[in-house]
Hints:
Layout lengths: L1 E4 L14 H12 L3 E5 L10 H4 L5 E4 L4 E4 L2 E5 L4 H13 L3 E5 L4 E2 L9 H10 L3 E2 L12 E5 L5 H7 L4 E5 L4 E6 L4 H12 L6 E5 L5 H6 L2 E4 L5 H6 L2 E2 L7 H8 L4
Parallel strand pairs: 1-2, 1-12, 2-3, 7-8, 12-13, 13-14
Antiparallel strand pairs: 3-4, 4-5, 6-7, 6-9, 9-11, 10-11
Helix pairs in contact: 1-9
Amino acid sequence: MIIFFDIDGTLWDYKNYIPQSTKDAIKRAQQNGHKCFINTGRARSFVHNKQLLEIGFDGIVSACGCMIEYEGKTLFNRIIDADEAIRTLESVRRHRLKPILEGPEYLYMDISDFKGDMYGDKIIAEMGDKLLGISDNWGNWQMNKLSCDCKGSDRDACFEELSDIYDYMIHNEFVVEMVPKGFNKGTGIREVCKLLGAEPSDTMAIGDSINDREMLETAGISIAMGRCADEIRDICDYTTDLLENDGIWKALEKYEII
C-alpha cells in the first residue's frame, strides 16, 4: 500500500512538534513493505525541516500535486508559465491581495506586505536565504502555486479575472491558495500510482484540512485526524485520535499496516 500524509496538523502541530509514535509508525510501515509519501500543499522549498525529512519518506508530493519526487529524484515539476505568472501578479496587486509565491527552490514574498504578521514572521524565520522578494525578482520567479492574504482586497474580482488559470482553496475569509487548474493533492496520488504501477484503491491518505479533500476522496482508505475540519471528518472512512495522542500510530494499527 502507498500511504500519503499531510504535514500541517497531521505529521506535526503548529509548533512543528512530531510525536515519536508518528516517526515509529512510519518506519514500521516501511519495514512491512508499504511506501510512505508526504502529500502537502506546501511547495517543495517550504519542505526542508531536518526533523521532518529525517523520518525517511519514500517520496514527496508537494504544491498540491504540482511536484512529485520519489527516492530523491524529481519525477514531475509543473512550473507556471512566465507570462501567466506576470499576469497573475499584476491582477493580484491590482486587486490588493498580498501574495506569497511558492516554488521548488524558493518562496517569494515582499516583507513589507507581511510586517507584523505572525505567518509572515514564521516564513521569514524558517526560510532564511530561500526567501526572496517578489518585486526584487520581478518576472524571474519559479513558482508552482501561490497563496494570498485577502484582507481588504477585492478578492472575488481577482478570482474571476484569473479563473481560466487557477482553482481556489479558500481557507477562511483572509487566506486563499491559488493552484493551477487540474492540480490538487488527489491528482498527486493518481500520478504517483501511475508512476509506480499501483491503483488508487491500494492507497491510504491521512489529513485534517480543506486542502486535503481531494486527497482523501481519491485514496482507497481515508483517515481524518482527531482535530480536523468537520467537512473532512464527514468524508473519511475513519477518524483517528489527536496528533499528540498517537493518532498516526493508532490509524495505521487499526488498518493492520503496523
